[in-house]
Amino acid sequence: MRQIRKYANHKHYDEATHAYVQVVDISDLVADGEQVTVVDDVTGRDVTLETMSRALYERVKSRDLDGDTTLAPADLARLCRKVAGRKGA
Fold first, then answer.
1. Which of the 8 DSSP states describes residue 53?
2. 27-56 pLDDT, tens digit each
3. Lower Cβ count inside 10 Å, N or C end of the chain?
4. Domain ranges of the chain
């Protein structure tokens, strides 16, 4: 399991490579099959979901989806319902 530390200054540190990484780099690790956990350095709380959500937002905002057209608004709506605990997810 790849461990990433999130610091108060919003920097992310990959403990395996001993280097700072950006949130999109973390999503690339996941896309490549790595199991990743992101932990807040101060609280020790698992912030993986928040980090992956941010990575998705950054990719959509920059249109950096590598030509992927399979991500539809309906998929995002289903994910939002699931996270909110609503039926139909």
1. H
2. 899 889 999 999 999 999 999 999 998 988
3. N
4. 2-84
